[in-house]
Amino acid sequence: MIHILYFASLRDRLETESENLSLEGVTNIAQLKEKLAARGGIWAEVFAGDEPVLGAVNQEMAQEDTPVGDGDEVGFFPPVTGG
Question: pTM for the full model?
Fold first, then answer.
């Protein structure tokens, strides 16, 4: 089981700020995004669309191949720009 947090506009679009999810078939960030996109609708738009979604595992920036394990905390957020 992993704990997923959704931040900023993702939280608003997905209408949830967090959830717990089984790791069945998931070993890295890319597979987790695929599992979330498979829900369809807005989930597919967010996680399989053209917009980039950044991830972090246990509060460390993650790449698509970053491993995800039982008990991890995963955060997803849109890219942030500053001025």
Answer: 0.93
Q: Measure the CA–CA gap between 21 and 40, rounded to whole angstroms.
A: 16
Other CB atoms within 10 A of residue 78 CB:
15
- Cα angle 61, 41, 50 (rounded to 5 degrees) comes to 50
Q: What are the C-alpha distances in Å from 8 to residues 12, 25, 28?
A: 7, 27, 23
Q: Name the helix (H) or strand (E) containing 37.
A: helix 29-37
State the pLDDT at residue 48. 92
Could you tell me the two tokens for 4? Answer: 């997923």
Task: Assign residue 37 the CATH number of its domain.
Answer: 3.10.20.30
Any domain includes 57: yes
Per-residue pLDDT tens over the stretch 3-53: 999 999 999 999 999 999 999 999 999 999 999 999 999 999 999 988 899
Query: Does residue 82 lie in a domain region?
Result: no
